[in-house]
Amino acid sequence: MSQVESQVMQKKKTWRDRAGKAGAGVAVAAGATKVAGAGKLVGLLKGVWLFAHFKTAFTMLLSVVGYAIFYGWWFAIGFVLLIFVHEIGHVIVLRFQGVKASAPMFVPFLGAFVKIEGEQRSVAQEAASALAGPIAGVVGTIAVLAAAQSSGSPLLTALAYSGFLINLFNLFPVLPLDGGRVAGALHPAIWIAGLVGAAVFLILRPNPILIFVLIMGGIETYRRWKDRKAGRTSAFFDVPASTRWAIGAAYLATAALCLYGMQYTYVPHHW
């Protein structure tokens, strides 16, 4: 009897040990799963943090890769840098005005944008910050042109032409382009003329970017026109005549410089 009892107790002990080991294994596995899940969560959070802090560099890199597929690496890098200079012009003036603005974000084949996180006090302020982009862009393009002239580089000449072109395009008086924001300080009727001009140009030279501009511009123009007629933004649109003349002169001078620069750097192709 004592031997039988001893064997039974030994089997119970062995069963308990095995159950304990199995339970410990499950606990370890569960703990490992939790650690792995926590590790993935931490990795995800780190990725979000890195993107939030380096989103300008990340989106710039995406744009460079996109343009490089069609135009080559060196042209793509130079082109994206010219867009960056344009956008930094916006950021500098916005922050000088005391308006919080994000770092530039790039969208491949559509350019870049700066998110305005504060409110501007008047349409004149908005026009000044809008003009700052093309003005900075033209200054950067002139520097590229000077380098092209001294080195005789066809690549830099092509970049200079492209720089003048993209800044001139941004001066087209259609929202949400820079020219559309300048037009609000001159006369809102210019928005309608700009939309008509863009529609005609789209018919003559179909372009997906123009379709995007027309859709966004039509929506934004309707909203602003409606608010202005309702008197909800009368203080915002109140601009002294002298300020209108100054903004108009700066706008025309920048556009003329872009046109002259394009003509100067244009290289005819013989196919």
How would you describe this protein?
The structure is a single chain. This protein is mainly alpha-helical. Helices cover 78% and strands 2% of the residues. The protein is built from eight helices and two strands; from the N terminus they run ααββαααααα. It has helices at residues 2-71, 73-96, 123-151, 154-170, 178-186, 189-204, 208-229, 241-265, and strands at 105-107, 111-113. Strands 1-2 form a two-stranded antiparallel ribbon. Strand 1 (105-107) and strand 2 form a beta hairpin. Helix 2 crosses helix 4 and helix 4 (154-170) runs antiparallel to helix 8 (241-265). The protein is globular, with a radius of gyration of 30 Å. Residues 26-30 and 43-52 have low confidence and may be disordered.
